[in-house]
Amino acid sequence: MAKLTSILDNDFYKFTMQYAVVKLFPKAKARYQFINRGKHQFPEGFDGKLREAVDEMANLKLSKAEKKFFSKTCPYIDPTYFDFLQGYQYDPEEVTITQQGHDLTVTIEGYWYRTILWEVPLMALICELYYEETGQQRVDDAEVMSIVEKKMDKYDKLNITIADFGTRRRHSHVVHDLVIKALKEHPSKTFIGTSNVHFAMKYQTKPIGTHAHEWFMFHAAKYGYKMANLLGLENWSDVYRGDLGIALSDTYTTEVFFKQFDKKLSKLFDGVRHDSGDPVEFAKMTIDHYKSKGINPLNKTIIFSDGLDYEKVVKIVKYCEGKIGYSFGIGTDFTNDVGLSRMNIVIKMTEAFPDEGEWTPVIKLSDEPNKHTGDPEEIKMAKRFLNIPTHE
């Protein structure tokens, strides 16, 4: 049955955000909710199986070898954090799981510095259990690796760099392992690392990531929508002092982000990450922004990470070549290309309780309206506040 075997089987940006939360917002609380975008039908008793797997996670502990790898890889993180992580244990009581018919409900609540680690492994478990419990048969191990090989042969010709971003919606731990093995063994320099810290350690590659939407969503709850991007990036730079310098741009639409991404931040951060909307339009906007600040776009990088496949990557490379730096984070197309329908699920922060204050709804205003998350009334209010046109 699906289960996690390492506390590091999680995305790197969860740990980098956790470190920042411990430093800056140790009293903050958060609530998260599972969103079944793909309307997947969960079989009877699924909640019980998931509960079992979640309860098992309480046994995960950071080993001495893991601590040594992680601290050596991230010299910009204080040693006190790795001591904290060594003492950290998942608390399954923070996760509530219920099921009505085929509908699954999962919520998470607790101190933000603790609950921040749940999202990615929970999604990975939901995916793996879903395929197990519905009895779907994937292609064999050799074919999994062959599919990756063929993709990399094509990507090599584009002269690009690629990282694996596929933990959350992978088919299974086994498939993810096979994918990283194939990527690592592939005879080129195209593959540069993975968002998964456990596999980064196992295959001696680089863990990759910075922060996620929830970082800015929390800042909106604490400081208001107009200050969320600016203070989110200021706080990030205060913690990391120039390291981990890729800024996520689309929590409250890219247009709003660039209004707040002033010259100081534009120079300080190495680049931006694209996660929704048309990638070529985003690249145009980013290049124009840097030029308007007197910054050469070729000295900056866009990390593209929104549902990528070969065709999308080719289109992006054709536009960006010679204009701006670029790299790619490919997720589900690597870790769940096994001959089955891929799952479309997310877990998002829904409310935050800043250090002082009260429970406050949080939302995400993606560059794609169908990827907005949060209370509809709160979304309308935020749009009015940020002067974002409403097309509904």
Continuous helix count: 17
What kind of oligomer do you see? single chain
Mean pLDDT: 96
Going across the major beta sheet, what is the strand order? 6-5-4-10-9-8-7
Taken from the alpha-carbon principal axes, the silhouette is globular
Low-confidence parts: none
Radius of gyration: 20 Å
Secondary structure: helix percent = 40-55%
Q: DSSP strand (E) fraction?
A: 5-15%
Distance between the termini: 44 Å
**Strand element count:** 12
Order of helices and strands: HEHHHEEHHHEHEHEHHEHHEHEHEHEEH
Which class best fits the helix and strand makeup?
Answer: alpha/beta
Mind describing the biggest β-sheet? 7 strands, parallel
Describe the structure.
The protein has 392 residues and is of the alpha/beta class. Helices cover 45% and strands 15% of the residues. The protein is built from 17 helices and twelve strands. The strands form two sheets. It has a seven-stranded parallel sheet with strand order 6-5-4-10-9-8-7. The protein has a five-stranded antiparallel sheet with strand order 2-3-1-11-12. Helix 15 (310-320) links the parallel strand 9 (301-304) and strand 10. Helix 7 packs across helix 8. The longest helix is centred in the middle third of the chain and has 16 residues, at 141-156. The radius of gyration is 20 Å and the shape is globular.
